[in-house]
Amino acid sequence: MIVATTEQPVEINVDDLMQFVFKAVEEVGATLNTALVVMGDKLGLYQALAGAGALSPAELAERTGTAERYIREWLNAQAAGGYVTYDPDSGRYTLPPVQAAALADPDCPAYLPGFFQTALGSMIDSPKITEAARSGAGFGWHEHVADVFEGCERFFRPGYNANLVSAWLPALDGVVAKLEQGALVADVGCGHGASTILMAQAYPNSTFVGSDYHAGSIETARRRAEEAGVAARVRFEVAPAGGYTGTGYDLVTMFDCLHDMGDPVGAARHVHSTLKPDGTWMIVEPAAGDRTEDNFNPVGRAYYGFSTLVCTPASLSQDVGLALGAQAGPARIADVTGAGGFTRFRRVAETPVNLVYEVRP
Ligand SMILES: C[S@@+](CC[C@H](N)C(=O)[O-])C[C@H]1O[C@@H](n2cnc3c(N)ncnc32)[C@H](O)[C@@H]1O
Q1: Pocket test for ligand 1, best of 252, 260, 282, 306 (most atoms within 8 A of CB)
Q2: 285 touches ligand 1 (CB under 6 Å)
């Protein structure tokens, strides 16, 4: 088959073309499933299916107070995608145990609804990002729909629950002993405060200051701290990373936010000036390799997507606009910390989605 392009004819194999088309069909199905997973999450469909055995659409609709015709269509889409199983004889659908853990158990480290929620929120804002890409303008984190913030919190929290206290903090030199004795900790770019509250619960002798430039997130973080019963030892403030208050910190933490900042080097300088001389800066960043091609895998693909729609525009919306991107990789993060005055940089832990660095003056 010969296809004429504007430049010159190029020969294309029809089988290869159809293979690519069918890959695209699968991806369109997967894209639509993002909205369907959020729908199932918000309507309580996964919760109702979990452990319930086989249910008909009418039974699921009745248990969730929803309309049967919508639920039947939703279940068929879920079955076609392998999220539920379907028994043609009974016309009933089952949520298998693995899917139930990942979709209906917020305590599962692999709990996924938040991932889909933040992805859907990012896509809702995509027309604005498309326009920004014409001009090079930024689009602030705070300008997104609430699903981006809430989904981010719900996606990251299970990973922090599974790793922060058991693996990441113990990987830092001498930090756990200080936290147990009573340390002063700043959690910068804390969003809804999931990491701040988790650390406060684990280390009752320590005091925590969570900060974020987004006022709406700080309001939620304060509410979460009240609900968790740690508000007396956790103070939240609205502040950019280059201007949070206090000095003499034993530990400064940044979870999945350094690359979102317009001026990460300025932030690094501020961290340096607020840390004790023997203090530690812990940076958690998305898992990434240094070379672009290192990140051509499913995790890298998802992060490049988020980076295009959320992280890069967020950084470009702020002063300096360095725009590290969500796949900056260890070498660029090390450069940023060095430019901020730090002399020691060490990768101390990793998960399939995160890298953890210990940075010291
Ligand atoms: C991906 S979210 C991570 C939030 C939180 N650390 C977590 O792990 O759930 C990135 C956060 O960085 C914050 N942020 C972006 N630029 C900032 C800046 N210059 N100073 C402080 N916070 C900033 C955003 O408001 C947002 O809450």
Answers
A1: 260
A2: no
- Atom of ligand 1 minimally distant from the CA of 214: 25
Question: Whose CA is closest to 116, among 126, 129, 103?
Answer: 103
Query: 142 C-alpha vs ligand 1 centroid, how far in Å?
Result: 9
- Work out the number of other CB atoms within 10 angstroms of the CB of residue 222: 18
Residue 324 CA to residue 335 CA, distance in Å, equals: 11
| Long-range pairs for 50-59: beta carbons < 8 A, 24 or more residues apart | 50/95, 50/100, 50/103, 50/104, 50/105, 51/100, 52/95, 53/94, 54/87, 54/90, 54/92, 54/93, 54/94, 55/92, 55/93, 55/94, 56/90, 56/91, 56/92, 56/93, 57/93, 59/92
- Distance in Å, CA 151 to ligand 1 centroid: 13
- Cα of 276 vs centre of ligand 1, distance in Å, is 23
**pLDDT tens-digit series, residues 193-250:** 999 999 999 999 999 999 999 999 999 999 999 999 999 999 999 999 999 999 999 9
> What are the φ/ψ torsions at residue 44 (nearest 5 degrees)?
75, 20
What is the torsion angle, in degrees rounded to the nearest 10, for the CA atoms of residue 75, residue 81, residue 84 and residue 88? 70
The overall pTM is greater than 0.90: yes
Please tell me if the CB atom of residue 93 comes closer than 6 angstroms to any atom of ligand 1: no
Phi, psi for 42 (deg, rounded to 5): -70, -30
Q: How far is the CA of 16 from the centre of ligand 1 (A)?
A: 43
Q: Long-range contacts for 67-74 (Cβ within 8 Å, ≥24 apart)?
A: 71/45, 74/36, 74/39, 74/40, 74/45
DSSP run (H or E) holding 83: none
- The tens digit of pLDDT for each residue in 275-302 reads 999 999 999 999 999 999 999 999 999 9
